[in-house]
Amino acid sequence: xxxxxxxxxxxxxxxxxxxxxxxxxxxxxxxxxxxxxxxxxxxxxxxxxxxxxxxxxxxxxxxxxxxxxxxxxxxxxxxxxxxxxxxxxxxxxxxxxxxxxxxxxxxxxxxxxxxxxxxxxxxxxxxxxxxxxxxxxxxxxxxxxxxxxxxxxxxxxxxxxxxxxxxxxxxxxxxxxxxxxxxxxxxxxxxxxxxxxxxxxxxxxxxxxxxxxxxxxxxxxxxxxxxxxxxxxxxxxxxxxxxxxxxxxxxxxxxxxxxxxxxxxxxxxxxxxxxxxxxxx
Length: 281
Known about the structure:
single chain, mainly alpha, 0% strand, disordered N terminus
């Protein structure tokens, strides 16, 4: 499995701390802007780091995107190519030591994003560790902040995106399978087990609902009981009408693919598997 090589919290942190506003302000301004553009293109990351402030961060906290697959990799690579091209304006011999480190972080990250575009389908859309069906649950129930009523409203906006994003993932997974990219049998079986467990309970017992209720309960001083019940009821309705049906569609896809899977788990068995293994190690 390929390691994740987008601009991570670590890399963004380096950019924030190592861009020294000294010898070459134009480079500093560009580096800050490019890091911000990357964060805007990755709203889950921007929420995790609370990268922005005020209205811009609030708008980011209402967005949710599919962050794996061919489309996401293509968009990352396009932004990375732009970054590499713009970085050429700042030769290392014109930068301070701190700026050189920042430039190296940006260059390495962008080069990785460009290279990994070729191998986007080697990261299976639905797999039991970081697959989309797992990542969306983790992000909304543990990462998306619930500090006040507005955060809960943003949560509901994002929750409404879960179904459409899963459908995007289904379309990409179908195309990947047609191109010869099927997960091994144990990954498909484990993912089906996860979905069965997730969909087994009624909507009012679903983690998207219960965690929202629990987190809002801790805000009794800021969110009234009546308002909390309204927000939780809205989450329950969304889970019932769009989220659970979408998870069932993912299960249907995986069940249809299961007979075509094998026990061979090595990435070498996939198209361009050796090259994908090389970049991931």
